[in-house]
Amino acid sequence: MSAKIRPIYTIITRKISVNSPKQTTVEVISGRDSYYKKMGNKALDSDEDLKPEGWDDAKPFKEIPGPKALPIIGNFWRFLPGAEFYNVEMLELHERLQKQHGNLTYLNGIPLKDPILFAYDPDDIEKVHRNEGPWPIRYGLPSFDYYRNHVRDDAYQGVGGVLTVQGEEWFKFRTVVNKILMQPRTAEMYVDSMDDVANEFIDNIRRFSKSNSKNEMPEDFQNEIYKWTLESMGVIAFNKRIGCLKPNLQKDSTGQKLIESSVQLFELMYKLDVLPSLWTILNTRNWRKYVKILDFFTEINMKYVNECMANANTNSNISEYEKSVLERLAQTDKKIAFAMAGDMIIAGIDTTGRTMAAALYFLARNPEIQEKLRQELKSQMPAKDSPVTKNILRESLYLKAVIKETTRLSPISIGNMRRTVRNMVLSGYQIPKGVSAELCFILLRAFFIL
């Protein structure tokens, strides 16, 4: 999701291997969730301050390699015009850091930014995740957090969404939304609608193919994929067809403006939250652009949520499991429903669109995999107009493998953000609790099949 990542098809060329209404947030936590919560608390309370095995033999934290910070100006100068990191894409920045300093790199001396540890070794990444406790601390988007909890607290009312909450609040939020979003029957209820969206997208692909002698897609085909993604997200988040897949969609249409705003949003997140920036103390140009884009998302989200709930009120005879995701979330907590709908649109356009583009690219580069997938789908859907059903989705095992392998080879982001909650040893170095770390799984070369 990071803005400065190069287009998905140029990142990597790897071979594919085979509840009841009106409950409060706290009340929704089930007995099983409480059990795991207590178990996790006990584990953290008992050993978070202990020295792990190998601690005394490990090198001290201050000896971790990384760009050397200069007195007063730190490492800020490296990002200035003419310096080594100026205008460098995020993926390339990490490639340089790993090559120059190894699989564990420490970067400090950036004004208004926490020092950060970059982990590139899969064993280190696994160890951090296994020691994060029941409530992971994930930093990384302070600009988004500030917007929702301060700039537009009038709209979000203290519920920033899954991207901003931490610790126990994250646990409570996920407990509410997981009970609805993670149920197989929730996904299955949208199969027919999603099939309609997919068929419309395929019709557009056929039209593009017939428009030129080489049967190629247009140069801006990524934007067409984003249209399909947004249309799909609209069905799930708002139970609504936005109309993105209509031929000759106008540039000033709501759908196209949402897509362009999503792309710009992640570019600005990179500039505000990753690169050196003064937005926390000054009303910078990038910050003003960022707020304007998020205001647009907020107003559209508010409009679509209100429309969805108004339609729900006029159709009160349907069963609980026929209700949309938004309706069921709203029965539990309307503020969570509003925040989650916004999260699905903002995050869904970019992440799902990039994953689809990567899957199509990998399949094109690996025709034998493409043919094997084609044969599986033909056996499930023998006729060209055979609809996709929930049973077909359950039985399409090779399709699931292709999607899983795509996300492994081409992750949607550089890595996960974590703050260590206990002492540990990584790559032979002492890592105390409270260290901000980025777990950079996009560079896990050891897992790639070349």
Automatic annotation (TrEMBL):
Entry-linked Gene3D superfamilies: Cytochrome P450
Keywords for the protein's UniProt record, in alphabetical order: Heme, Iron, Metal-binding, Monooxygenase, Oxidoreductase
Cofactor(s) listed: heme
Pfam families: p450
Any GO molecular function: iron ion binding
Membrane-spanning ranges: none
CDD domains according to UniProt: CYP24A1-like
SUPFAM superfamilies named in the record: Cytochrome P450 (SSF48264)
Domain of life assignment: Eukaryota
Stated family: Belongs to the cytochrome P450 family.
Name of the protein in its database record: Uncharacterized protein
Upper taxonomic lineage: Eukaryota, Metazoa, Ecdysozoa, Arthropoda, Hexapoda
